[in-house]
Amino acid sequence: MIEINGSDTDKMKKLLKYARRNLSPYIYFSDWDGRSAEMGLQIQEPIIDEEGGSTIRFLLLKRVGQIQFEEGNRINAPTRSEFERKVREQYMRIINHSHYALLPAIYDRVVRVPEVNLAMAPFRKILISLEEYGNISVDELQRELRLSTINRFSALLQELGFIEIKEGVISPGAKMKGLKAQSIDPPELYEKILSEVIQQRSKYLTEVSHLTMIIPYLRWSNAYYLPSYEAGRLVRMGKDYYINNYISYYRMPEKRIVFVNQIQRVLDAEILTREKDYFVGDEKIFDTYSKIADKEKILQPA
Amino acid sequence: MVWLSSSVGSIDDIRDSKTNRYLSDIVKHFKRQASPSTCYTVSIHNILTELSERQGDKRIKLSEKRINQLTKFREFIGPKLEIVVRNINKEIMKYGYKAYEDFNGTYQQLLDILKDTQCSYPLVGLAHSYLVNERGLFRGEENIELPPDHVVTVIDINEENTFFFDPYGRYSRFQSDFPEGIFTLSTSRFLDEYWTKALFCNWLFWIGRSDAGTQKLDSYL
Q1: Which one of B75, B82, B148 has the shortest CB-CB distance to A42?
Q2: Nearest C-alpha of chain A: how many angstroms from B217?
Q3: Which of B61, B85, B100, B207 could be disulfide-bonded to B52 (CB atoms 3.0-4.6 Å)?
Q4: CB distance A26–B138 less than 8 Å?
Q5: Where are the beta strands (DSSP E) in chain A?
Q6: Distance in angstroms between the alpha carbons of the first and the last residue of chain A
Q7: How far is CA B105 from the centre of its chain?
Q8: Do B199 and A26 touch (CB under 8 A)?
């Protein structure tokens, strides 16, 4: 029970104090209407730059719960675990939004990675056959290649406009013709198409087709580029801080050997480079990512 | 007690009121906050460790992990403030110590705690504007109404100056003449701009003897 006499501001302060004592010291209110408020959370994020000076930025997670005075001066608020779950959900929205801003910036590097290349082989086989013969039947592809994914992957390429399928026959689609008209030939042609497939359908590829080898690249890239975006520059990031970001974003148990090997693959793909004891991003990736992140307002989830 | 002019002298000359040690020696083993929502919990760890070492009583030394459990600390949302004192006391009262919390702290109270060798150094909550104005953080970022307070450890105070340890010190954009983490403010500014203007204004936390304020049996013998 709490005494709610006093001015409107006093009432709001009492409710805010209750929320900070019982849910989180980092709560703030928006949309206070005299009895209830929408809660937000200020997350303070250290940006540790080994050379450019470290600082702290904050993220505002909006709408993470409601709190209100009810009859008899009772307070109705979410439980702490409900509140924590909502905060985590909102935070993950930022992380996931960032993935979608990052993908167009790194896909051309990711597609060159051997294991991603291997996973994308069915797409490549369809495209090579098409390039050689002009058109090809779906039955023939299935019979010769014996790949269970041919139907799904052909449908996906059709959906993105790279091929057309009419009466069981595959022919080049408008987008593929467009690329060829620009004198983009194999192998660059395949690389461009496969990059766009990854960019446009990453959720489908990872969650439905289980091509999960893209995920570590995205996540490790995010653990570097998102804090850099918050800092507004490419930071010189030490290994411990980099790994801590990764663990914090994705709630991963610490596996040092797995982690350094995954990081090495990100370095091999030239998504990051290593200078002395720290990691530095790529200007081109950062510019592309920052432009999309600005446009999509990734730090302000609705 | 060292009295300093408004231009604070060298750190080498300054000793505290409680133990007559150099300020840099007091905070030598103080930890900085490892993550952003740990200013309170790491400060509790620091003052308990310092008190335990000074009193020669290892039983009241609690690891950060244990303090996080006791305070129901969670990533991003931090500790549950409401249960901090109660749960810390469950651990330390059996050894004759107690955590105290006061929402109407005064200058005199700070002086008393800082003089009492049986007490820890006190923690205070400062208004968010302290981080903006004095540490140069969060400039130009989106404003929110009544932003969160920040916990620091007061090491010494006099009519002119307040010395404190800020676990966020490494991120300060403004250099200090003192070793990392120690900062000073004029006492008037500390009291009126930051301590009183915190949402939990004049909030104070410290560890003392659980029988403080009652006469000990041996005083009758």
Answers
A1: B148
A2: 37
A3: B61
A4: no
A5: 27-30, 36-47, 55-69, 75-76, 136-137, 163-166, 169-172, 237-238, 272-275, 278-281
A6: 33
A7: 13
A8: no
Nearest to B141 among A23, A46, A57 (CB): A57
What is the average pLDDT across B83-89? 97
Residue range A2-14, pLDDT digits in tens: 444 567 888 899 9
- Distance CA(A268)–CA(B221), nearest Å, equals 78
| Distance in angstroms (rounded) separating the CA atoms of residues B201 and B208 | 22
Residue whose pair of structure tokens reads 């930051």 in the numeric block: B194
Contacts (Cβ under 8 Å, ≥6 apart) of B101 = B84, B85, B203, B204, B205
Strand partners, B124: B152, B204
Output the DSSP codes for B43-68. Answer: HHHHHHHHHHHHHT-GGG---HHHHH
Residues in A touching B82 (Cβ below 8 Å): 21-22
B37 with A42: Cβ contact below 8 A: no
What ipTM did this prediction achieve?
0.88
pLDDT at A123: 86
Topology given in CATH for the domain delimited by A120-201:
Arc Repressor Mutant, subunit A (1.10.10)
Quick one: fold of B36-210? Cathepsin B; Chain A (3.90.70)
Cα separation of A244 and A260, whole Å?
A: 13
Q: How many CB pairs under 8 A join A and B?
A: 89
Chain B: closest CA distance from residue A9 (Å): 11
Q: pLDDT at position A301, please?
A: 66
Partners of residue B141 in chain A, C-beta under 8 Å: 57-58
Residue of B32, B77, B201 to mutate, interface with A, max A Cβ within 10 Å: B77
Q: What is the edge-to-edge ordering of all strands in the sheet holding A272-275? A: A237-238, A278-281, A272-275
B80/A80 touch (CB, cutoff 8 Å), yes or no: yes
B99 forms bridges with which residues in the sheet? Answer: B207
Contact, B190 vs B166, CB < 8 A?
no
Q: Per residue in B142-200, pLDDT tens?
A: 888 899 999 999 999 999 999 999 998 888 888 777 777 899 999 999 999 999 999 99
How many Å apart are CA A162 and CA A167, to the nearest integer?
17
Rounded to a whole number, what is the distance in Å from the CA of A90 to chain B's nearest CA? 11
| Helix/strand/coil (H/E/C) assignment for every residue in A181-232 | HCCCCCCHHHHHHHHHHHHHCHHHHHHCCCCCCHHHHHHHHHHHHHHHHHHC
Statement: residue A231 has pLDDT above 50: yes
Most B CBs within 10 A among A39, A41, A42, hence the mutation to make, goes to: A42
Answer yes or no: do B77 and A40 touch at CB < 8 A: no
Inter-chain residue contact A22 with B82, CB threshold 8 Å: yes
